[in-house]
Write a sequence for this structure.
């Protein structure tokens, strides 16, 4: 006869083994998930960090009176001066084709930059002065090691002559890499070396602002009514099911809705952050309502009953006692919804925000694009230097997503009361 | 607390509502050109837009990439500030589209030819370059292929060798753009139809039964040998590197930028080079256009100046900055003719 209190069951070892197997399976799953995340983030950083640095070339520009007339600053040929400096540096380049390649070492922005400097510092004109110009994207990629120098000449975008010129300039200390501030302070450009994310960043900010001011008040009000005031019945059940379904609707559908209603019926301006924000608000509304209802439900009924017991009206009990306690949870839900909206491209496709926008939008009515759209556009460009830019823009986008989620976590930790 | 909260909410809501009403008002006067259309013309259009914005006092035009067909649809929707001024197209406007435009009050359209673009079939540099004819391309990629005189059969070919004994015995695997793309339209029209026409009886069919002719020549196979790889040409280039047996279909500018990893196949014995596309000897090349609404020219600031910038020698000329971006310029006399036509805002003639 076996005594189950004193003797081990023969199955016990099996059950322990099963538990250990399960734990190991779980650990392997976590390890795999982390490994994928690590590879993804690692490759983005590996590809993208280069974009935060930019190559500059120094040239001696002739600023004498013959070249730039101080009385007529607009009349000078700044592009010509840059070309002259390059010609003076490499006087033995004669053939037309080679000269064009030589002029291509510096970015097309050099002439504009020189002109701007001359207009700002007219007193310093005269003589010869050393200027640092932004190098072209090919030189930039070359200096960052993105071009196989050993390969056949016909196989690469940079010819042997260009390699020689760059090497000469580098030997004279005329090539430098500096932090690419312009990446954060300028808008999109077709020249990879000049492209920045400011216009996309501002466009995203405007859209999110509109999205927040529309979806947050509406979402909170809807949640309060549904949770605190509406009578429970088939009608509220139906609403609940529909809100949950809306949260699962693919975002492109909201884009189509925005196109049909906001653009075609209301005639709102195409490509504007106003419409973008409205579409994103439609998309985040269900998420915010669900989160806000959950936050309201987490407030214990005793709070409401106590308020009602000492004579508060249901409205007073809700707004004076329940809402302040539920607010951190509601804000967390809203921030998570906003973070999702920040990363969304599909609905913006339909309303014309997938566009080349060089100027920074000054209001919610001006054409704008958004960060994820900018990533998409750069990843789709033929110039190879844009791949680096796309990865750098992903880093910026990830940074904002992490910051928003951190705020949500801090809000929850600091302000939420547990009962 | 209750009253303060509601006031804040009320202010927020009214601010947004106010902004919406403001929006409809402010949209009336526009000082910024709006351009939409083809993703193939997009890099060129944006380059000109950017230079134009830097050089002049006007705002940088907004350029949207919607595809040729989608662009023309929006373009023809009407006249007014909420409608675009210019649409880019990687094919010529169709007469059905001109009619649709006219129905919506857009009677005067100015056509501008930008230049040429070659469509290349490329493979990885790790593999050998291919020597294809248009007939090979058609037989390898059509849904139905000719089976003797006047009859067809579903495409049975599995390897390039099945198509043409001179080709290698590699599996047919071609990645190309989806039907919404102008590149696909042009490829089907130039390469597929070109190969299709090489059969005399099919060519004769064109006159008798145009519908059946089109169905036979324009339908790509759907059994996995032709893979729709999406609009992103960079993705196709990357996939080619991973799979040396596959061919990819994309625009010349992507071949130009990635010459170290992919190579263009010879088609009818011609290599896809800048020169061959420019002089028309490379068979799969198309013209790129954009269309301007004449009614908008005086209403929206800067359209005339933008047209002048686009058609200047600096831009679409033989050694202009668009050539550096991969555009293949027209011959000099053609450029001159277009420049004059555009300057006079000559109406489109079909």
């Amino acid at each position: 006869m076996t005594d189950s209190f004193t003797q081990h069951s023969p199955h016990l070892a099996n059950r322990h083994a099963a538990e250990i197997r399960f734990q190991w399976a779980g650990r392997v799953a976590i390890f795999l998930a982390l490994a994928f995340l690590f590879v993804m983030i690692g490759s983005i950083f590996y590809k993208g960090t280069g974009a935060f640095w930019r190559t500059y070339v120094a040239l001696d520009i002739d600023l004498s009176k013959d070249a730039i007339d101080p009385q007529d600053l607009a009349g000078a040929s700044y592009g010509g001066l840059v070309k002259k400096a390059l010609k003076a540096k490499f006087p033995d380049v004669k053939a037309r084709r080679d000269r064009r390649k030589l002029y291509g070492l510096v970015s097309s922005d050099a002439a504009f930059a020189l002109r701007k400097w001359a207009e700002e510092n007219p007193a310093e004109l005269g003589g010869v002065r050393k200027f640092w110009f932004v190098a072209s994207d090919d030189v930039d990629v070359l200096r960052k090691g993105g071009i196989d120098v050993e390969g056949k000449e016909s196989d690469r975008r940079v010819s042997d002559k260009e390699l020689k010129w760059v090497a000469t300039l580098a030997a004279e200390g005329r090539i430098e890499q500096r932090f690419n501030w312009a990446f954060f302070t300028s808008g999109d450009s077709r020249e990879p070396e000049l492209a920045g994310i400011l216009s996309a960043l501002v466009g995203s900010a405007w859209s999110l602002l509109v999205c927040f001011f529309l979806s947050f008040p509406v979402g909170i009000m809807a949640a309060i009514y549904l949770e605190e005031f509406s009578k429970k019945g088939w009608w509220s059940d139906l609403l609940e099911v529909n809100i949950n379904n809306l949260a699962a609707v693919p975002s492109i559908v909201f884009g189509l809705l925005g196109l049909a209603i906001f653009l075609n019926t209301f005639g709102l301006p195409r490509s504007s952050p106003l419409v973008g924000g409205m579409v994103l608000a439609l998309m985040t509304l269900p998420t915010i309502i669900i989160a806000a209802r959950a936050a309201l439900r987490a407030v214990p009924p005793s709070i409401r009953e106590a308020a009602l017991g000492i004579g508060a009206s249901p409205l007073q009990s809700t707004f004076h006692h329940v809402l302040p306690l539920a607010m951190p949870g509601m804000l967390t839900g809203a921030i998570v919804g906003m973070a999702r909206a920040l990363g969304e491209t599909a609905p913006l496709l339909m309303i014309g925000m997938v566009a080349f926008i060089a100027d920074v939008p000054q209001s919610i009515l001006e054409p704008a694009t958004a960060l994820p759209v900018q990533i998409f556009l750069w990843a789709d460009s033929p110039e190879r230097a844009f791949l680096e830019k796309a990865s750098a823009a992903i880093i910026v986008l990830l940074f904002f997503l992490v910051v928003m989620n951190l705020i949500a976590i801090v809000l929850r930790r600091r302000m939420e009361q547990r009962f | 607390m209750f009253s303060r909260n509601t006031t804040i909410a009320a202010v927020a809501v009214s601010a947004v509502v106010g902004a919406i009403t403001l929006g409809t008002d402010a949209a009336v006067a526009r000082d910024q050109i709006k351009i939409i259309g083809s993703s193939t013309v997009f890099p060129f259009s944006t380059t000109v837009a950017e230079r134009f914005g830097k050089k002049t006092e006007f705002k940088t035009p907004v350029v949207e990439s919607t595809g040729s067909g989608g662009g023309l649809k929006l373009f023809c929707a009407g006249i007014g500030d909420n409608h675009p001024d210019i649409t880019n197209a990687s094919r010529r406007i169709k007469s059905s589209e001109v009619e649709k435009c006219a129905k919506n009050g857009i009677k005067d359209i100015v056509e501008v030819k930008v230049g040429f673009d070659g469509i290349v079939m490329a493979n990885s540099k790790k593999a050998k370059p291919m020597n294809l004819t248009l007939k090979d391309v058609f037989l390898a990629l059509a849904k139905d292929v000719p089976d003797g005189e006047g009859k067809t059969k579903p495409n049975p070919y599995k390897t390039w060798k099945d198509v043409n004994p001179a080709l290698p015995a590699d599996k047919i695997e071609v990645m190309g753009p989806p039907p919404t793309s102008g590149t696909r339209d042009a490829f089907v029209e130039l390469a597929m139809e070109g190969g299709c026409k090489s059969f005399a009886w099919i060519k004769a069919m064109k006159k008798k039964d145009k519908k059946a002719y089109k169905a036979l020549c324009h339908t790509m196979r759907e059994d996995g040998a032709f893979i729709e790889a999406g609009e992103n040409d960079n993705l196709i280039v990357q996939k080619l590197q991973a799979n040396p047996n596959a061919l990819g279909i994309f625009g010349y500018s992507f071949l130009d930028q990635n010459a170290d990893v992919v190579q263009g196949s010879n088609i009818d014995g011609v290599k896809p080079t800048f020169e061959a596309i420019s002089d028309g000897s490379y068979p799969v090349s198309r013209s790129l256009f954009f269309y301007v609404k004449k009614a908008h020219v005086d209403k929206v600031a800067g359209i005339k100046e933008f047209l002048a910038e686009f058609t200047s020698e600096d831009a679409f000329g033989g050694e202009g900055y668009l050539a550096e971006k991969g555009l293949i310029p027209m011959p000099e006399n053609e450029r001159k003719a277009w420049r004059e036509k555009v300057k006079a805002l000559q109406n489109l003639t079909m």
User: Anything to note?
Assistant: Chain A is about 60% helix and 5% strand. Chain A touches chain B through 53 residues (CB under 8 Å). Chain A has two domains: 57-178, 198-415.
